[in-house]
Amino acid sequence: MSALLEIQNLCAEVEGKSILKGVNLRINAGEIHALMGPNGSGKSTLSNVLFGHPKYKVTGGRILYQGEDIAALKTYERARRGMFLAFQYPVAIPGVSVANFLRTALKSVHGDAQAVKSFRKLLREKMELLGADEKFASRYVNDGFSGGEKKRLEILQMALLDPKFAVLDETDSGLDIDALRVVSEGINKVMSPEKGLLLITHYQRILDYVKPQFVHVLSDGRIVRSGGPELPAELEKTGYLRRDGEAVQAAA
């Protein structure tokens, strides 16, 4: 049985600089994987490459999604196949309401436009699931939003689009304790045994709420260590580097 997502010896560069230097990763349906690592290790580059950002050039390896090599697909084509990316820094769109934005996104990904009445019913159901206030839908996208509201909107998009595979790029960035708990609860409600999730983070704190089965450490463009849910606590104590300055490596 093929994996939901399989990355094979992936290499990529940006503006001629090599960033990913042979990443290997396999994610099955129903699995939550956390990707950790120091700044500049290539975590956000990996998320951009997975979703076909034109600034990033794949120089080797393969990205298989449900057994299909998607390297040549445009970003919107990957989204239509059930892939989703939550941004670390969501962009504000003044003048565009959350409801209109989400209805347009739903049409772009799934094709046919839903009737206004059925869309509003679906949106209301998802907002209730995530505990979002009804007035949230009439506000302009991320315009004047707090950090927690921006990230909650990302999870609302995820709930509405219902992707098979999602990457959350530092969703915990800039969140206080209460916002982190609310956003994490939303992630857990949206997940299901049919879906896979790659959670990119610097810190253990979100992993206290969203429990990964597998944790990986990315350093200098390669996954240098993998383990179970106990690994983040160890990293909190030891850091990503040994005392000699070299990246922590997996035991031989």
Q: How would you sum up this structure, described in words?
A:
This protein has 252 residues and is an alpha/beta fold. 31% of the residues lie in helices and 28% in strands. The chain has one domain: Rossmann fold. The strands form 3 sheets. The chain has a 6-stranded mixed sheet, with helices on both faces. A 4-stranded antiparallel sheet has the order 2-1-4-5. Strands 7-8 form a two-stranded antiparallel ribbon. α4 crosses α5 and α5 runs parallel beside α6. The longest helix has 15 residues. The chain is globular and about 50 Å long. The model has no long low-confidence stretch (mean pLDDT 91).
CATH class: Alpha Beta
What is the terminal-to-terminal distance?
28 Å
Fill in the CATH topology.
Rossmann fold
> Structural class given helices, strands, pairing?
alpha/beta
Q: Can I get a quick summary?
A:
The protein has seven helices and twelve strands.
Summarize this structure as a short list of keywords or feature phrases:
six-stranded mixed β-sheet, 252 residues, Rossmann fold, 12 strands, four-stranded antiparallel β-sheet, 7 helices, alpha/beta
